[in-house]
TrEMBL record:
Cellular component GO terms, alphabetical: nucleus
Pfam families in the record: Pro_isomerase
Name used for this protein in its record: Peptidyl-prolyl cis-trans isomerase
Catalysis: reaction(s): [protein]-peptidylproline (omega=180) = [protein]-peptidylproline (omega=0)
Native organism: Plakobranchus ocellatus
Stretch forming the signal peptide: none
Domain annotation PPIase cyclophilin-type: ranges: 6-160
PROSITE patterns per record: CSA_PPIASE_2
Entry EC number(s): 5.2.1.8
Function as written in the Swiss-Prot or TrEMBL entry: PPIases accelerate the folding of proteins. It catalyzes the cis-trans isomerization of proline imidic peptide bonds in oligopeptides.
Amino acid sequence: MSVIIETSIGDFTVDLYTDERPRCCLNFLKLCKIKFYNFSLFHDVQSNLVAQTGDPTATGRGGESIFARLYGEQARFFDMEISPRIKHTRKGLVSMVNNGSGMHGSQFFITLAENLDYLDGKHTVFGEVAEGFEIIDKLNDTFCGEDNRPHQDIRCALIG
């Protein structure tokens, strides 16, 4: 299954690992369906590392899983799906962000470089960019402040 991520700098397509990461993909797809990600900022862009989005507060501390909408605050986050088989080995991988407690909510990032193996076991890869690598390169080349926030806002216009 694939989704198109439309951004203010162009569009790219992500193929999801629905068989290997069913819970992460379900969470992501359901959040897409309710338009949760629409107008989200890429709030943390670290050149040759990652570009992070999916936080409605754009602080890196917000967001929630779809399960919170279904089951309440106790389900704000869900357990990571870790498999040693899928690693952060190349540019364009899409991963759920670990909230610091081994849990995921809504935030995700796209890898902007290869061989980021130190992310393995900490964040769950659930897809990969299939088309639009020039947009990933634009994200990587974005001018950012010391806090890694782009000087010019880059937003997800629509994910679906």
